Amino acid sequence: MPSPPPAESRELFGASLPVSTQCRQLVHEQVRLLYERLWQPVLASVLGACLLVAAMWPLLPATLLIGWLVVLVFVSSGRLGLAWYYHRQPASRRHQRCWLRRFAWGAGIAGAVWGAAGLLMFTMEHQGQLAALTIVLTGVAAGGMTTLSSVWWVAPVFILPALLPLLGQLLFQGSPFSWLLSAMVVLFLGLLLTVSRRLHHIISDNIALRLAVTSRESQLRESESRYRAIFRHTPLGVMHFDGEGRVVDFNEKCLEILGTTWERLQGFNLLEQAEDKRVSGAVRQALVSGTGYYEGTYRAILSGKQTPLRAFYNALRNEAGEIVGGVALIEDFTERKRAEETIHRQAYFDPLTELPNRRLLIETLASTIRDRRDDGRLGLVMFLDLDRFKMINDSLGHSVGDELLRQLSKRLLVCMRDGDMAARLSGDEFVVLVPALSGDREAELVRAEQMARELLSSLRKVYDLAGQRISVTPSIGYTLFPLAADDDVGDVLRHADTAMYQAKVKGRAQVCGYEPSMQTQITWRLEMEQALRSALTEDQLFAQYQPQLDQDGRIFGVEALMRWQHPVHGWISPEVFIAIAEESDLIVELETWMLDSCCELLTRLPAEMLPRLSVNISVRHFTQPGFVEGVTWVLGTHGIDPSRLTIELTESIMIDGLGEAVDRMHQLKRLGVNLALDDFGTGFSSLTYLKCLPLDELKIDRSFVSDLDSDSNDAAIVETILAMAQHLGIEVVAEGVENEAQLDFLLARGCRRFQGYHFHRPMAIELLEQLLSRCQESAGSGQITD
Prior knowledge:
Layout: H1 7-13, H2 19-36, H3 39-56, H4 62-88, H5 91-94, H6 98-120, H7 127-148, H8 154-173, H9 176-233, E1 237-242, E2 247-250, H10 252-258, H11 262-265, H12 277-289, E3 291-299, E4 306-317, E5 323-332, H13 333-348, H14 358-375, E6 379-386, H15 389-396, H16 398-415, E7 421-426, E8 429-434, H17 441-459, E9 463-465, E10 468-470, E11 474-481, H18 489-506, E12 511-513, H19 516-535, E13 541-550, E14 555-566, E15 570-572, H20 574-584, H21 587-604, E16 613-616, H22 619-622, H23 627-638, E17 645-650, H24 658-671, E18 674-680, H25 686-690, E19 697-700, H26 702-705, H27 712-728, E20 731-734, H28 740-748, E21 753-754, H29 765-780
Helix pairs in contact: 1-9, 2-9, 3-4, 3-7, 4-6, 6-7, 6-8, 7-8, 7-9, 8-9, 15-16, 19-20, 21-23
């Protein structure tokens, strides 16, 4: 391999190029020199070979000499052909490292051919021919040294094979004359290698210097060009003046702002000729103290143009720190006023939908609340949130999602009466403000419900988005205000938001009015969240286990299910506390504890007794940056076989980015962990994304299994899932099997794995161990029981 550039070469480059780039450029130049100079030594080598053959012709057989000469010419032609082919390649291919290896092989082979001459043509009886042989070989070696030293190790590749055979022959003869010649050859060889090394450094330094000069010249031209471009095209007026206040240079924007010409502004003295004394004062201050400032309507003495502007003056100093001039940045206030109007628009209106934003809504609502307190009437706030908007955004793209928000905003405006306001809070959240209703609360509650439902009916109609017809529904919560004398903006919006949340709890596309009892529910949820935080440390959480059986009634695995026994409220449903945990990010701690407990159980129970254990992982936990590392750590800590652990995920992993989810699942598969898709069929786009996921198992949701015998649609869905899974080679577990009819239906359609009350209910660890022990004993005795 070529050596890296020496320290002095790197200093030549300086900071102009990265070290890796320096090395590459230097090596490319070294290799180019090898090929560029190749024809000279090759031609000299062939001529020397002809002279050597002529000298040896009287002594050696003609066939030997001609054969050797033919080989040398053939090798030389091949090297010249390689050089010709190298020069015909584009620059990108000439930079490949293989060209240096090819050249080195050619040099080594050529050196070996010359070395063969030292063996075949050696003679002690004819000292004249021996001298000729020695002179030719050393001359060829010296020539190789001068032309091959750009890469330090290529010269020895040629020189050593060329001279060492001759040196060996001389040493083998043992005569004083041969010893003398061998000593001279050794000295000459050492001199060649030393000079070659030194020459290599000289060539490398010259190349480095040339590259550095070229690079710095290019950088200087680029820097100057960049400076001129910035100076000429900056959106501000730029003016350069000398130490006496005379204008030296300026850009086109400066001329445009001042309304003058190049001839009239060049040489203008800002200290003596400026009509506005504030200008000359700011320039003088910059030349004395370093900075100056002017703001106002400037009347140019040269053109008479009046322009509202401001100018910043800064001094320019020489290397000694003395002020030798200054530069002015001039801004036209006309553009600034337009910018201020734009900023005001941005401050109070949403740029995407052009609806009022949160800030304007809050200010308007605060004023409306004060008015309603004064006149005793009521106002109405409706809080809207789109159902599954994130799914549309992620699956169809943000451009489609933005277009949906724009179209929805237009529908909102159509539904508004004079005086009403529709505002976008953030994302897919909107608020409708009806500022003035009557004072009859009961009548206005009925009217508010009607208005919310009319709004829902209008917004849920199909949208045409980029050629796709998409139906989107909002959840709407509404509240009248003021409900109390001290209600403020935060209270009103919180009440409407609470009602909207309750609408989502009821299901999508629902309307819900605020009731004070809802606040009690929210308070209860907050209390439960705090209780859940301490439940883990106080051992209130535990696991139950539900066996999974195959078609022969054998237990092939167990699913771990989290349970919570509250000391005051008693048994808390998983549907309740898991939802609370996911909303508060406690789910990561809970599932980490669950994962550790399950791995500990796998450590305690042998694989023959418990082949595998399934653990449910939420989307929020799965998408954590260190999730895979955490699974790796817990597996390594407990030292269990990863194939005994199954991680169950839901289809909602596809909402937050399919590509990232697939990558993370592949990482888990490389660990050896099994992956299952839980509650399959209840999500969205399952068939579209299923082929992308590295799954081992699908779990048919219990909602489909429970009505197999009474709902033909559920039966068709289950049959489709089983057929699809069999085609893809994925195992299927049917959840919620509760009776023999369901089991027979599933068996008849090829389902081989089951889970449900028909076999076992979730049980404590002690009962599970007893069950597994009985199954193991029965299997050992040849009997199979569940």
